[in-house]
Design brief:
The strands form 7 sheets. The protein has a 6-stranded mixed sheet, with helices on both faces. The model is unreliable at 99-127 (pLDDT under 50). The longest helix has 24 residues, at 504-527. Among the domains are: 3-93, Ubiquitin-like (UB roll); 133-202, Ubiquitin-like (UB roll); 357-403 and 511-631, Nucleotidyltransferase, domain 5 (2-Layer Sandwich), CATH 3.30.420; 412-498, no CATH class. It has 634 residues and is an alpha/beta fold. Helices cover 28% and strands 25% of the residues. The N and C termini lie far apart (62 Å). It has 18 helices and 29 strands.
Length: 634
């Protein structure tokens, strides 16, 4: 078949593709990442590019305004290559996978120690320490005529614990112990009542033992390098999940995994990102890669399947059954993770297709499982998960909130990184005061900024309760062929070439996201015959950090209208739980018990859920009696 060269600007990178390939698939082939939250289905309208030279056939232009068409914009997923092309990727369509710097890190995922209340830290530190891997230095008595036990028996006898090993170690054992003058270090991984010897080194290397805990999120990857001897976190890294180029949610990625080489591509992207983070962390903290012996990962069920290159197809097909929830300890190299060749990988146990190990880790780190009073954990993300319970029971559900609060599916949305508008106040004359992450020039709006903005527009009369911008004559409000829009930052004050706005379509997407979270929480509590007044604590997890304004979140109906002291921000609870587990055998056992104990509640088969959801599709809610502190201000 005929092939053409597609060159992408401004990076000036070219790739050869078959005729009738989409521009989006050409970009993916070239490892170029264009925003495509819908995974290339042509429904989100985010993959806008400019064809500077050459011919394409556009399958549809319905998502483009007349102004955009006149500028030569087209959608990469719906534009078929017909000749050699030169394609420019505008800044707003490019996915920026640049690492988060130390200042931005606190805004994206604030370190848990900085925001957890003291009692949660106490719970973490109270867990007995028994790291996933441990190094033990041994000085073996040399054999003689009175002590002729085998080399392996001699090793196990001196170690004073029941242990297994493998053929590779046995083959090298006799020469290694003699060359080392019978002074060796064994690396052990704890499993149940026994241990496995996974590595044997000459001399005393016991002081150098490191591990990595990871939270593998749909949008973000977070990792920490930990000294397993001192139990100290040496460094933290956050980067963006490059799988986002194949869709912003788990469903679109599961669908893509069925494409030829789709599963391999999704696996490769996450593993390459993890390996890059590992390299950066060990370089910055002067750690030898061979001294990294353990990796522990928490993530939702789909992310763990993709990490391990396990087919996720049936996660999205009724009756929604994953391939695996409880995984054995395995060798890290089996998943392509580059640490010590003998190092191990542990993945936190999940509960169901849409409640994974990240929620198990979150419940562990928040301590809900041993609270006497009722508590709720709400993890606000693309796949919003909610857990209700105490020491007697745990029940969880998942709501498809979508990526709006993480910056996708909204016209000027972005992740919580440099230049994102994160806080907004508005007066009656629509004068705006806003702040951005890192005090940089505004590039777009992140989740906490959108929550503030909608709350302020609602309170100041710019927005109807059903989420429509009012037809008010003001320089910030204008009509477009896609509906009304409200100008948040005029282009001369931005770090982009256009105004930063919120429009009716954006608000509709955000409204649906908040309705999904609230109605899922409400339905779960109703299902148990309870109401919000009986809940003692609500833990809020996710990427908002400390920038989420509680009053704003309640005023738009994202969270229930309760005493503000009941809400506790816990940041990345998944990463906090992963850190606990890599350091504590008891924590790993407790996490498995939590996963076994937790009941999964399927919202899609709940008769009342859709009624709850529809009622929540207003700001703050159809029933204002549920929001008494808000209704008087509207």
């Amino acid at each position: 078949m005929e092939k053409f060269i597609v060159t992408f600007l401004p990076i000036n990178k070219s790739v050869s593709v078959l005729k009738d390939s989409t521009i989006l698939s050409a970009a993916i082939s070239a490892d170029i990442f264009i925003a495509s939250p819908c995974g290339g289905d042509g429904v989100c309208g985010r993959c806008k590019v400019v064809v500077k030279k050459g011919n394409v056939v556009m399958q549809s232009t319905g998502l483009l305004s007349d102004e955009e068409k006149n500028k030569g914009l087209c959608l990469a997923c719906l534009s078929l290559v017909q000749s050699d092309l030169v394609v420019e990727i505008p800044q707003e369509s490019a996915i920026d996978f640049e690492k988060v710097d130390s200042l931005e890190l606190k805004k994206v995922y604030t370190d848990v120690e900085e925001i957890e209340p003291p009692e949660i830290n106490a719970k973490e530190q109270a867990l007995p320490i028994s790291s996933l891997t441990e190094k033990i230095y041994l000085e073996l008595p040399p054999p003689d005529l009175d002590d002729k036990v085998s080399d392996l028996e001699r090793l196990l006898r001196q170690a004073r614990l029941p242990a297994n090993t493998n053929l590779t170690i046995i083959r090298s054992l006799s020469s290694l112990v003699r060359d080392a003058d019978w002074k060796v270090t064994v690396t052990l991984v704890k499993q149940a009542e026994k241990a496995d010897i996974i590595n044997l080194e000459p001399g005393d290397t016991s002081k150098d033992n490191f591990g990595l805990s990871f939270d593998i999120g749909t949008t973000t990857l977070s990792g920490q390098l930990i000294n397993l001897n001192t139990k100290k976190v040496l460094g933290t890294k956050v980067t963006y999940n490059k799988q986002a180029s194949f869709g912003s949610d788990v469903i679109t990625r599961i669908i893509y995994a069925r494409e030829p080489d789709g599963l391999e591509k999704l696996h490769r992207l996450v593993v390459e990102s993890m390996n890059q983070m590992i390299q950066e962390l060990i370089h910055e903290h002067k750690v030898n890669l061979n001294d990294v012996t353990a990796v522990l990962c928490a993530g939702n069920t789909t992310m763990i399947h993709l990490l391990l290159r396990i087919d996720p197809t049936h996660i999205r097909k009724e009756p929604y059954v994953p391939t695996v929830n409880f995984l054995p300890i395995m060798r890290a190299h089996e998943a392509g993770i580059k640490i010590n060749p003998h190092g191990v990988l542990f993945c936190v146990s999940g509960v169901a297709s849409y409640v994974g190990g990240d929620i198990t880790a979150g419940v562990l780190s928040c301590g809900i499982y041993k609270e006497k009073d009722l508590s709720v954990l709400i993890d606000i993300g693309t796949n919003g998960e909610i857990v209700l319970g105490n020491e007697e029971f745990l029940i969880a559900c998942a709501a498809s909130a979508g990526p709006a609060f993480e910056g996708s599916g909204v016209s000027c949305g972005m992740r919580a990184t440099r230049g994102a508008v994160q806080k907004v106040t508005l007066d009656k004359d629509f004068n705006i005061v806003y702040s951005t992450i890192a005090q940089a020039k505004a590039k777009g709006i992140c989740g906490s900024g959108y929550i503030d903005l909608i709350s302020q527009m609602l309170m100041m009369g710019a927005l109807d309760k059903d989420g429509k911008i009012k037809p008010i004559k003001h320089k910030r409000i204008r009509e477009t062929d896609l509906g009304r829009e409200f100008i948040v930052v005029f282009k001369e004050d931005t770090d982009s070439s256009s105004d930063i706005v919120i429009n009716d379509v954006d608000i509709e997407n955000l409204k649906r996201a908040k309705a999904a979270i609230y109605s899922a929480t409400s339905s779960l509590i109703r299902h148990m015959g309870l109401d919000f007044s009986q809940v003692n604590k609500i833990f809020i997890a996710g990427g908002f950090g400390t920038s989420l304004d509680m009053d704003s979140a309640i005023s738009i109906g994202l969270l229930p209208d309760l005493d503000r002291n009941k809400f506790i921000f816990v940041g990345n609870s998944s990463l906090a739980g992963a850190r606990q587990m890599i350091l504590s055998e008891d924590a790993r056992k407790t996490a498995d018990q939590i996963a076994h104990k937790m009941t999964y509640f399927e919202l899609s088969v709940d008769a009342g859920y859709m009624d709850e959801y529809m009622a929540a599709l207003f700001f703050p809610h159809t029933d204002l009696n549920k929001f008494p502190s808000v209704s008087g201000n509207l």
